[in-house]
Sequence to fold (152 residues):
Amino acid sequence: MLHVKILLLLVIVVMALAACGNAVAPPARGILDAPAQATTLTQVRQAIDTLYRRHPGITEFSVKNVTYTPAARDKVLKICSEGSVAADNQERERQKVLACAPLIFFFYNYGQQSAVPESVDVARLLYAYATTNSSADAAKVLTDLLRSWQIA
Fold:
């Protein structure tokens, strides 16, 4: 009877240890894998403005020889949200998402290289905005482009 109790206790201990070993935090989701949630341009602008206010060094950060001052960033964001002269709506959507791509790349890299998770969150938010406010084809073009740039 004592052996059965000891055996049962060992089984419980082993199961508890196994459960603890499996209680590893899930890996952080990349910006391309986050569930799509509707995001407004106002939310994106507020997040970007907050990022620039909290991290003024971002104006001097350069990736692939590109730096985004507030003025340059706003010009690109305007094309990202409105598009440019295009033959049709499909082409305008592609213009918009392709304009968003470098900003997403910039914010993602600033966040990774400067240890500023808030910037990665801005990249994620801008990606959500671009993909939820465009056609599936345009969203796929954006996602494929960002993947080719090693964005996760």
Summary: Confidence is low (pLDDT under 50) at residues 1-28. DSSP finds six helices and no strands in the chain.
